[in-house]
Specification:
The chain is an alpha/beta fold and about 325 residues long. Helix content is about 40%, strand content about 15%. The chain starts with a strand and ends with a helix. The chain binds nicotinamide-adenine-dinucleotide and uridine-5'-diphosphate (UDP).
């Protein structure tokens, strides 16, 4: 299959591109490098021995997207590209709405024009807001609490409307839980600019002595040890979920959670990280972070039953691989 991967040099996109190339698929990447580096392309080649065709274009530029469709005529699209920092989306909502929505609309217009009907879209568990029941099923109510999350929900709605207008579209919405970990080679991973917002990159930097202490946001939640519980999933398992979604025999509009189905608290993750990497992670308990929820983990039954999706990697692997990438870089 010839697959157009938007945001293919980013964290999740790059791992997915590797698996596509290893499976013998042809890969076209559009990425404007707003949150990634060109050197990732070389690393992908180093791992796979294969080239992906790369366009450093902004998806918000319709003429550029159209040019790629005209030239490449892909069979399917995996749409990762987007801005993803929750805090930044609160301070720069227009940037987030413009980038995430316009890029998607341009992409979908080109898909319609060039008769490309299969798309896999990166959504997020953030669309569930504060869950009423756990584990979270795909039919749970949806509610967003920040502009980033709202862009994801709006895109889900756009995709639904598009499908209702033209049922020849084959659309998969994947709601990711908390991706961490990195490629086993140590060449690909996540290394955010500035001070990380997410837990794992922060833990890694404290373990390396690059940041003095991890602030754990609250130990008074109604959870196993009082700290927040999330469903961490290895990025390689997540990447594999996209391959399954592309090859899914069920046609139509489908929505799947991609998580392990298992909740892990902040302290459990920190302890596991210390143990498997034989390092110390200094931490202190501070007050809760605004907008945080106590617990969030997926029901992974639907993805398992319909996609055959299961997770291969454990929390140990996730902790080892996250540190290994940082070590190697
Ligand atoms: P990332 O920032 O590493 O990758 C996104 C890529 O998209 C980057 O390489 C960036 O340069 C590119 N991009 C952004 N806007 C673009 C534009 N207008 N034109 C072209 N390229 C553009 O993010 P990621 O962690 O790999 O996430 C991929 C997708 O998954 C995103 O849509 C994100 O919202 C979603 N998601 C991520 C997480 C997570 O925790 N990482 C969780 C849930 C959902
Ligand atoms: N967290 C923390 N300290 C940090 C970053 C995160 O204690 O520096 C906690 C956070 O409160 C949550 C969990 O770690 O319970 C995961 O947070 P992250 O931002 O990675 O993911 P999200 O909250 O978006 O699911």
């Amino acid at each position: 299959m010839k697959v157009l991967v938007t945001g293919g040099l980013g964290y999740i996109g790059s791992h997915t591109v590797v698996e596509l190339l290893e499976n013998g698929d042809e890969v076209i990447i559009i990425d404007n490098l707003v949150n990634s580096k060109l050197e990732v392309l070389e690393k992908i080649k180093k791992i796979t021995g294969k080239n992906a065709t790369f366009y450093q274009y902004d998806l918000c530029d319709y003429s550029k997207v159209s040019e790629v469709f005209e030239k490449e005529r892909p069979d399917a699209v995996i749409h990762f590209a987007g801005l993803k920092a929750v805090g930044e989306s609160v301070s720069k909502p227009l940037t987030y709405y413009e980038n995430n929505l316009l890029s998607t609309i341009n992409l979908l217009k080109c898909m319609a024009k060039y008769n490309v009907k299969k798309i896999v879209f990166s959504s997020s568990a953030t669309v569930y807001g504060k869950p009423k029941t756990l584990p979270i099923r795909e039919d749970a109510s949806l509610h967003t609490t920040n502009p980033y999350g709202t862009t994801k929900l709006m895109i889900e709605n756009i995709l639904t409307d598009l499908y209702n207008s033209d049922s020849s579209f084959d659309i998969t919405i994947l709601r990711y839980f908390n991706p961490i970990g990195s490629h086993k080679s140590g060449l690909l991973g996540e290394n955010p600019n500035g001070i990380p917002n997410n837990l794992m990159p922060y833990v890694v930097r404290v373990a390396r002595g690059e940041l003095p202490v991890l602030n754990i946001f609250g130990d008074d939640y109604p959870t196993i040890d009082g700290t927040g519980v999330r469903d961490y999933i290895h990025v390689l398992d997540l990447a594999h979920g996209h391959i399954l979604a592309l090859n899914n025999k069920i046609h139509g509009l489908k929505i799947y959670n991609l998580g392990t189905g298992k909740g892990t608290s902040v302290l459990e993750l920190v302890k596991m990280f210390e143990k498997v990497n034989n390092v110390k992670v200094n931490y202190q308990i501070v007050k809760r972070r605004d907008g945080d929820i106590a617990e969030c983990y997926a029901s992974s039954d639907k993805a398992k039953n319909e996609l055959g999706f299961t997770c291969k990697y454990t929390l140990e692997d996730m902790c080892l691989d996250s540190y290994n990438y940082h070590d190697a870089n």
